[in-house]
Amino acid sequence: MNAAAGNRSLPPIALLSDFGYRDHYVGVMKGVIAGIAPAANVIDLAHGIPAQAIAAGALVLEQSWRYFPPRTIFVAVVDPGVGTARLPIAIECKTGARFIGPDNGLLWSAAQQAGVRRIVELRSPRYRLPAVSATFHGRDIFAPTAAYLWCGVRLAALGPAVPAMTEPAEIVAAVREGRNEIIGSIVYIDGFGNLITNIDRASYERFTRRFRGLGLSVRIGRRAPIEMRNAYGEADVGGSLATFGSFDRLEIAVRDGSAAQRFSAAPGALVTLRAVRRFQAGLTGN
Asked: What is the phi/psi pair of residue 139, to 5°?
């Protein structure tokens, strides 16, 4: 077997960040990895996460990890607390997936889904760059850690065990179920302007079982209600709709348009799913 064929059986390193592509940050992380593990296959998962948007990064990572080969090493850097007391960590999961990044909630949801086996603090100076800045742990700690793990270094060698991770409250907690409504919030806006909320399908299905036979409407803040649809194509061109998309969370969209622009919405805006006796035609939030 030649070297190229052998590399196809090795796990990739997947990078996610809020660095964008204007600056050199992503390229430098790849350079650090290449210097330690030149044969590693590095995949750009996403670098357009909004700046400092931990909940958005956590949601994208949660939605992505399972589509990668077993033992993939995920490096996620959305880190407004870089250089503070928040810990740099690495996680090994029962599925084989490994996650590296700051302990600020970014890794929590994906790692829980993958089945956390052990967590360590990235403390060993042997597996980081000689000089560690207070502003770029992606380059100085997380990238070299990923490269050394890819080369076969064991997780336990990276530092002491950590008993638990920080949870991202914006994703896992802010859904309140009332007598006839669920109140959630927008946590992510994709490139099409679709507004992704933290109302998951399980909450939705529990709610619809309680109010079987009633109609459903969705509101952003105090705006007019938006009708639930099964797919974008069920709405008229330019019409608003609410649906469950590929994130498997309630989202608000505009067919062939941008809901973010239509509603001037931003992450954190409240979204209400309500059971109604009759959906009033024409109140589509336009």
From this structure: -80, -45
Ranking 53-57, 69-73, 126-130 by mean pLDDT, the lowest is: 53-57
On the question of pLDDT at 254 being above 50, the answer is: yes
CB-based contacts of 70, cutoff 8 Å, min separation 6: 11, 95, 96, 97
Domain boundaries in the chain?
3-169, 174-276
Q: What is the pTM of this model?
A: 0.86
| 229 within 8 A of 284, measured Cβ to Cβ | no
Buried (b) or exposed (e) across 95-131, using 16+ Cβ within 10 A?
bebbbbbbbbbbbbbbbebbebeebbebeeeebbbee
Average pLDDT rounded to a whole number, residues 204-208 = 86
Reading phi first (left if > 0) and then psi (alpha if -120 to 50, else beta), residue 191 is in alpha
The CATH class of the 174-276 domain is mainly beta
Q: Which DSSP string do the residues of 112-176 spell out, in sequence order?
A: HHH-EEEEEE---GGGS-SS--SS-HIIIIIHHHHHHHHTT--GGGGS-B-S-----HHHHT--E
Cβ contacts of 232 within 8 Å, gap of 6 or more: 241, 243, 253, 255
Task: Give me the pLDDT at residue 8, please.
Answer: 56
Candidates 3.40.50.10790, 3.40.50.880, 3.30.1490.20, 3.40.1190.20; correct CATH number of 3-169? 3.40.50.10790
* Rounded mean pLDDT, 192-199: 93
| Residue 22: burial class (beta carbons within 10 Å; 0-12, 13-18, 19+) | exposed
How many other CB atoms are found less than 10 A from the CB of residue 213? 7
